[in-house]
Write a structure and sequence with these properties.
single chain; alpha/beta; D-Maltodextrin-Binding Protein, domain 2; 3 domains; 5-stranded mixed beta sheet; 15 strands
């Protein structure tokens, strides 16, 4: 019978890139992690990883075995979830990934109450403005603001995410307010570096409109700050801008002939199989925060 702890060591080591990091996550000594992995390799009769003092990589046999190790751990988590009363709250380690803006504006404010209600839970919040491979990185839940296209994952729409164009009062005083879609060509539009297009709904159809300006960035937080500082016009979600609009620091802009296409806030999980209580409880708290 395969040692589940050894399987955990393998999965964590692959996700973190080293046995030392895996040991820290699991709360065991690095020597213990190394011995468990070595014992697993001995039991299977193959080498699963190439080790150096600084890095770790899977062998061909390791790549083949890794999905089975993850499946074993998923079965264990499902078995524990089936007998643990949900009233006791979540437990274990929950790994969630989302964008930097959503983490700061929505997730972080809900954490004090959520963690207080689930004292046996540990949260690893992976913040990135680039899409994380949740299967490869062992993530339990991804919160994505978009329309997911990856059919290999399981996506559930949590809420709508309306978007608008915004600018600071200082920018509008200096450059004027665009009235139509074509007017954007005469403005500094702030975009993410890898996407110089904004999606609009115009005359009942979806339109990808190319925009440009003097500043692009790979981080939504930077784009937000540049917009609030009067550098240009940005396309952003209502949840990201509500406080600034209320304070008068940002002004929503409406065009006569087009509206920014709304997207969704999605919960993405690696499998449709039994969702553990820790994920269900986190999503319930998140949906409450979104209302």
């Amino acid at each position: 019978m395969i040692d589940l702890w050894a399987a955990k060591v393998l999965v964590e080591a692959v996700g973190t890139g080293s046995l030392a990091a895996a040991a820290r996550r699991l709360g065991i000594a690095p020597m213990v992690a190394s011995r468990r992995l070595a014992a697993l390799e001995a039991e299977l009769g193959v080498r699963l990883v190439h080790r150096t003092t600084r890095s770790l990589s899977l062998t061909t046999a390791g790549e083949s075995f890794l999905p089975h190790a993850r499946a074993l751990l998923e079965e264990e988590a499902g078995a524990r979830a089936a007998v643990r009363p949900e009233a006791l709250g979540a437990s274990g380690l929950l790994r969630v990934t989302t964008s930097s803006a959503f983490a700061r504006k929505v997730v972080a404010p809900m954490l004090p109450a959520f963690l207080a209600a689930n004292p046996a839970l540990k949260l690893d919040l992976l913040v990135s403005d680039h899409r994380v491979d949740i299967v490869a990185d062992g993530v339990d839940l991804a919160i994505r603001i978009a329309n997911p296209l990856d059919n290999s994952l399981v996506a559930r729409r949590l809420a709508d995410s309306p978007r608008h164009l915004y600018a600071a009062p200082a920018y509008l005083a200096a450059r004027g307010r665009p009235g139509r879609l074509a007017d954007l060509a005469g403005h500094d539009c702030l975009t993410l570096s890898d996407n110089p297009y904004w999606d609009f709904l115009a005359a009942g159809r979806r339109l990808r409109h190319h925009v440009a300006g003097r500043v692009t960035t790979n981080a939504m937080e930077t784009l937000y700050e540049a917009c609030a500082g009067g550098v240009g016009i940005a396309c952003m979600a209502e949840w990201n801008t509500a406080q600034a609009v209320a304070a008068g620091d940002l002004v929503p802009l409406e065009l006569e002939d087009a509206a920014v296409e709304p997207v969704g806030i999605w919960a993405v999980t690696p499998t449709a199989r039994l969702v553990p209580p820790k994920v269900r409880l986190f999503l319930a708290a998140l949906q409450q925060a979104l209302t």
